[in-house]
Amino acid sequence: xxxxxxxxxxxxxxxxxxxxxxxxxxxxxxxxxxxxxxxxxxxxxxxxxxxxxxxxxxxxxxxxxxxxxxxxxxxxxxxxxxxxxxxxxxxxxxxxxxxxxxxxxxxxxxxxxxxxxxxxxxxxxxxxxxxxxxxxxxxxxxxxxxxxxxxxxxxxxxxxxxxxxxxxxxxxxxxxxxxxxxxxxxxxxxxxxxxxxxxxxxxxxxxxxxxxxxxxxxxxxxxxxxxxxxxxxxxxxxxxxxxxxxxxxxxxxxxxxxxxxxxxxxxxxxxxxxxxxxxxxxxxxxxxxxxxxxxxxxxxxxxxxxxxxxxxxxxxxxxxxxxxxxxxxxxxxxxxxxxxxxx
Length: 343
What we know:
It contains 15 helices and nine strands. It is α/β, with parallel strands linked by helices and 343 residues long. Helix 8 packs parallel to helix 10.
C-alpha cells in the first residue's frame, strides 16, 4: 500500500519531491457528458449552483478516476464578476464572454472595494463548492482551484483592443494588469482558504507566440510572479496553462516561479523538458484528435509516447480542456497509463 494520500502525492511531486508513482490528474477542464449523465447533474445549471458544481467536479474523481478534483469548469466567472456580458453555455459547451466593461482607467473606479466572496457573484458559488468538497474529502484528495489568469482577464474586461493597447498605451496596460492581478490574488487566496491545495492558472491569451518575448516579459511575467508568490506563501503549488505552441517561451514563462507548466498538443514534450530548469511539464495528449476522436488503444499508444518524451520530468495529462463529449474509457486509459508509471 502506498505511503501517500492522493493529495500528498500530487503536492509533493509539484514541489519537486520524489514520490512512488505519477499522480493521475487533469489541471484543465474536466467535465464530460458521461459524468453529467452518470450523476444527473448538467451544464449550464451546474455552473450556477454550488452543490451541483461540487457534485459534477467530484465526478471527475468518482466516475472518471482522476486523483484530484478540479473546480470550476469555465473561465468566465471572473469577467462576469465585473459586469461583462456572458453567453450561457449548453450541456456540451462552455459559457463565453460577449461584452466588455473597461475603456479607460476611470471605468475601474466603480469596482473599488469589491469582495470576491460577494454572495451575489458567481465567484462565491465556486468558493462554496470548494468548501463542500474540502469538507467531504479532507486531506485525502487534492482540490485543484482554478481561474483565468490576469492577462486574459484584462483582455476579457477590455475587449479586443487590449492587444493594441499594451503596445501603444503602456501605462494604461500596466494599470489594468495591476487591477486584474489584485483580483486574481484575492480570488486565488479565497479558494485556498475554502480548501484548494493546488492551483491551476489558465491564461490562454497570454501567449508568447501571440505577443512576443518583450511584451510577455513586461505584461505577464511580473504579474504571474505576484500571484504565484502569494500562493507559495500559503504553501500551495501552482500550474500555469497557456494555449498554443509555447515551446520558445517556456524558459521565460518559468521565470515567474511557477511549479509546473501545462503545454498543449502543439508542443513537443521531449523538447519542452529541455527548455525549463525546474518546472514540471504537464501534458499533452490532444483533447480532440486523441482523447475524443480515437480508440482506447490509440490513447494507450499516445500516452506511452508522451510518457517516454517526458522522461520523468513531467505529468501525463490532456493538452487542454477535455472536450465534453470525450468517452470515459478514453480518459481512463490515460489515467491508467499515468498511474502505472513509476519514477
